Amino acid sequence: MSDLVQVRDLVVDRGGRRVLQALRFVIEQGSVTGLLGPSGCGKSTLMRSLVGVQRLTSGGVTVAGSEAGSASLRSRVGYVTQAASVYDDLTVRENLTFFARVLGAGGEAVPDAIATVDLADHADQVVGRLSGGQRSRVSLAVALLNSPELLVLDEPTVGLDPVLRRDLWALFHRLADGGAAVFVSSHVMDEADRCDRLLLMREGRIIADDTPQAIREQTRTDDIESAFLALVEHEAGAG
Amino acid sequence: MTSRILMAVATRVLTQLRRDHRTAAMLLVLPCVLMTLLWWMFRDLPGGLFDRFGPALLAMFPFIVMFLVTSVTTLRERTSGTLERLLAMPMGKLDFLGGYAVAFGIVATVQAALAVALSVGLLGLEVAGPVLLLGFVAVADAVLGTALGLFVSAFARTEFQAVQFMPLLVIPQILLCGLFVPRSSLPDVLHGISDVLPLSYATDAMQILVTTTATGDVWRDLGIVAGFIVAALGLGAATLRRRTP
Question: B129 CB contacts (<8 Å, ≥6 apart)?
Answer without folding.
Answer: B208, B209, B210, B212, B213, B214, B215, B218
